[in-house]
Amino acid sequence: MKKWAIWLCSLLLLLPLSACGANSGGGGKPLENVRLAEVTRSIFYAPQYVALAKGFFKEEGLDVELTTTWGGDKTMTTLLSGGADIALVGSETSIYVYAQGTDDPVINFAQLTQTDGTFLVSRHKIDHFSWEMLKGSTFLGQRKGGMPQMVGEFVLKQHGIDPHTDLNLIQNVDFANIPNAFASGTGDFVQLFEPTASLFEQEGKGYIVASFGTESGRVPYTSYMARQSYMNEHKDIIEKFTRALYKAQQWVDSHSAAEIAEVIQPYFQDTDLALIEKVVDRYKSQGTYATDPILDEEEWNNLQNIMAEAGELPKRIDLNTLVDSSFAKNAMNTQ
Q: Does the record bear Signal in its keywords (predicted)?
């Protein structure tokens, strides 16, 4: 929690991102600019790229400017400092901000993913994996207090493993550098997002042995959020954004992994199309992509249970305090 307090105090040091000028939509009507900050670039967020590539946002009159901010703390700092209008990041960040005390809380208004998106990758090929194999190993984890690490610890404990006593847990590697650290020889196991996990497997750098998403259950892993003040002033934009997202979620749900891969490939130009398809299929098969934008109470409570188990929950917060599902419900009623 101390780290969150530090970056919250350093917001004034961040220079806001510049906004693009509005483009023209159909019939010459100008598009409204929306600056969107995503926590990382991952096939985990396929419906978002579908919404962009298929023009669903533009159909709603929005020109969405996407920036990858690489990490939950950086993403939330960008949002709070006014460098972004909307952020795609773990829902736990809104709880951290609220617990610090604020007159302008960050509100979750649409869910994108409903399971963890990371996979357990072993340095060596294991034909018959069991979680017991992690005991005594060096585990290259994620940032303390972030959803990947908290879910990782939650799953390990479910399998009778204390992450702080039963293995050598490394948590001091910056989020963006974790794959490189593992590739260079750090750790026996690592927790990775896609497409990196499958790419490592393809290149013989590691082998996927388990999915944290299938082990942890439903949780609002990543959602779209905005400052309360922005939502109050731009309800029409939030409404349009959510409608476009829901259209993309339905499109992903009703199309094949191959079709989805072809649409989102421009956002992963360094990744082979066949690999993108493999990753999308893996996420679809485990129910990772939410099929609607509603963040429900069961998911919200599961999130807080995971945070509490990791010792990172400052206090329990009611769903309605930091979640506004009205835009999601309206979007579903107008399709």
A: yes
